[in-house]
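Batch manifest line 609
LIGAND: C2E
JOB: complex structure
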Amino acid sequence: MLQFQNSILEMIARGEELQATIEDLCRRVEARFPGIACSVLSVRDAKLYPIAAPSLPASYTSRLVGVPIGPMVGSCGAAAYYGIPVTVTDIEIDVRWQHYKQFVVPIGFKACWSTPIVAADKVVATFAFYFREGREPTDGEREIVNACVHLCAIAIERDERVCERERLTYTDALTALANRARFNKVLAERKLSEGANGVRPWGLLLADLDNLKLVNDTFGHAAGDALLQTVARRLATAVSMENSFRLGGDEFAAIVDADDMPALAAKAEALIREIKRPAECDGHVVFPAATIGGALAANAVSASQVQRDADIALYHGKERCRGQYTGYFVGMGTALTRRFRAIRDVGVALSENRIEAHYQPILRLDTREIVGFEALARMRTRKGERLSAAHFHEATLDAHVAAQLTDRMLSLVSADMRRWLNMGLPLQHVGINLSAADFRSDDLHSRLTAAFAAAGVPLRHVILEVTESVYLGERDHVVADEIKVLRSMGFRVALDDFGTGFASLTHLLTVPVDIIKIDKSFVDRLVPADAGTVIVEGVMSIATKLGIRVVAEGIETQAQADHLRSLGCLLGQGYLFSKAVDPLTAKHLLSTSAQRPGFAKGNHDGTAV
Ligand code: C2E
Ligand code: CA
Ligand code: CA
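JOB STATUS: finished
ARTIFACT:
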């Protein structure tokens, strides 16, 4: 007996699996009492789950999985239910066995004696003896079962502690979702595609909350925690608990079934819609917003590549289209590398004073008089080449570099403007390009006014160009409010690249601007029978009625210029007239070809905008 106990305790101490330990225990007992079969069933949430029953057929024990305990559920179900030993000496006729006797009577068992195993005051399992004779247990059997029950209780308690520790290691405490460690494990074990083991085609979605920091900062951490819990709940509902993960901070992940990219996108978009619903967080109403990146397992060679792809997609999404889904495509990584290079190059160029302001004239299409300039950034390389902004403007997707670039351009442009005004040149206005990042800083208007005030340039000479995508960006109300403030301070605002995004003319009513710059792609489509003509016509007529000036960009041919004029467009810029020129040439152009306010030719009112 002592030796038996010791060897079981040793197994427990060694950390053997619960099942192996209990099975060993059963076999030893069965060896000592020939003809008897042992079974140990665990009891969780008032349901039975077999742990070991080495001499009972699997066809029987498998029936017991998840069966609720109860007075009529055999000896074990009843023992667990009442918390006391139950002896049934004639299974054949005992009403408690009526639903189960057909599994054991045919294999020769006549009686069953089950003892509850109690740990921490609750029944955690049952220990049963199946007899081949209709009888009660002997004293010797009672003695060994007492010992077994005790040993099982120790083994089960220990196993529960281990499981709990494991659960904690793999669970995020705040949201109860599986954590990053679990995610890594699941992903590493995940097969890429359908094989013999029947894995469904799947994809990975990585989600990043856009407004956790804002919620933390404005409403406090309790609200931030509540936001995370809400999003976790919504994720688990939309996907499933076992395939949802919180990777840390405001990052979540989900593994979803998806055959192809459109299917993955549909899942992601449904998820975004679900997450977006207003939520109550610590007494505040919050509109959760998430950016999601996704990749398909079928397009990758390893699970870790799926993760990398989804990461790249998320990164792209966070910079370009927050609050939306971005799917990975081949080449996205290269674009990312190119962007990183641009960011680094512009950063270095800024610190080495190799950023210059060049000026592209904006002219009246009828008289070709210059009415203003658009300031365009140029980067001088160390070798002395001059790169146009198209080569590096991706760098303006980086908030830090973008803000620095704007500040540098502001100081260069305001200084040039001051110089021209001092010379008495007929300078009407210069346009400055702003990027999305500029609107993310909350001191944009003070940065702008400070720069022009320092140079003594009146704000009426300044046009701020905001691209359509920024104007309609994810925080459009922020941009809209800022645009209103800027206009009230005396700046004029131009809506740049009009027609390339989704700005509709109705947006002009909610966020008024002074100027619309029709994108080159429309100018290129000003050929007979192309819808481009109709669209430009429509824009012209509405803009005129709203008192908005229109500038056509990228005019390269006289035919385009004539066509635009015939459509009522008064102003344009493009290589037909001039590329962007250095400040000295710009000064020269101003003195020779600029429209002098008050001396306007033709029917124009004298000032361009
Ligand atoms: P954008 O604001 O639409 O500027 C017009 C771009 O079209 C300029 O390219 C200009 O040189 C080019 N362009 C003008 N006329 C023609 C033409 O007739 N044909 C063709 N093919 N192109 C023409 P650039 O200077 O390379 O600038 C590219 C973009 O970079 C700009 O587009 C603007 O979004 C951005 N950018 C330029 N300078 C700055 C800046 O100082 N700050 C910020 N944030 N962005 C800038
Ligand atoms: Ca522009
Ligand atoms: Ca433009």
